[in-house]
Write a structure and sequence with these properties.
The complex is a heterodimer of chains A (156) and B (214).
Chain A: H1 2-9, E1 20-24, H2 29-39, E2 42-46, H3 52-64, E3 70-76, H4 86-95, H5 98-103, E4 105-110, H6 124-149
Helix pairs in contact in A: 2-3
Chain B: H1 7-38, H2 45-49, H3 51-66, E1 70-75, H4 88-96, E2 100-106, H5 114-120, H6 125-147, H7 157-176, H8 178-181, E3 185-187
Parallel strand pairs in B: 1-2
Helix pairs in contact in B: 1-3, 5-7, 6-7
Classes of the chains: A alpha/beta (156), B mainly alpha (214).
Chain lengths: 156, 214
Amino acid sequence: MRLIRQITRRKGWHLDTGIFVIHCDDSFWREIVELCLTCASAAVIDVTEPSQNVIWELETAFSLMPPESIVLACGISEGAAKELPVLVRERLLAHLLGSALAHAQTFFYPLQRVQLGQHPWGGRRDLRSDLETQLASAMAINMHWRVRDEPGAISE
Amino acid sequence: MEMPPDAERILSRARRSRVHGVVMALVVLLPCTFLAWYHGLYADLFGSFLLWPAVTLILVLASTFQKGNRLILWLRRFHVTRPAGMQFHRLLQGACSGFGFPLTVQDSTFRRSLAMSAVKMQILATPLMLVLLVVMMVMYRGLARAFGLPDQLSAPILPGLGVLLFLGVWITACAGLGHRWLPAARVRSPETGRCARKNFETNPPDHQAKGLAP
């Protein structure tokens, strides 16, 4: 929690390029994920391979955050349609509420680099721009939700 | 109480932050380039080492303006190796630029990544370069004495020896040390939330790393 507070309140110059990784022991990774979800402005959950752990992460995320601030990222293989694969959708619907799933944002990306530039994918820049827009809207919704539910908790 | 900014405002703020980063980097880069060119630092072995602090400063500036304070949690599970697969972490990193702070959680199945360490080693570039410079000088003098080579810094063998030595130490450091004390924060127990190590990771090898749980 202290670490998360340090991240969100840091000011001035810093050298922390890339994605920050929190390493934890196998025995309590779920607690750490829960803690991070509680503090996160948006969550990106990769559902390409919806294992039992991914399902747990989704259930936890949907219980702690508004569905609109969750981005479901799904890798699409070559030749497949740009939508949640049937198997993935069925697996998710078996564990999650359909309405919550419908409100979550979905982001599709090509599984292979060679798919970039081919139909229906744009270039890397287009993908990044799509993801950026989804993240910004997820964050805005999350901030509205927090302000509504916890007055004075977070304000820009 | 202020209303939270909507998505458009978040995006425009992110764009402004990126522009500031570029401007600041130029403010540092242009005078440094001019000074280096004016004093001919590129042509001098010792002078070229003086450029590293400037490079580090530019990296700090870029990082400062690119990272926001809003946490964006990335949860993934990649046990399958996909050759030539899309690197989602790079996409996410770019998408968060200017407004978000992407973070992820990994369990102990994650071990090491040479690519990750190599980028993280940028942080240590300046001190490593200085240490290497001293090591190179000592080695060169030793070799020169042993084989009767001309003991002068302009000897033709010196640049080649220096490059080889530098690459060797760099790769060894990335492979050996990188995974141990360069990755991010390690939480030992959920009760205390104590961080044993606090550093930063740049490129998690998404298609090679182990996922959150076995």
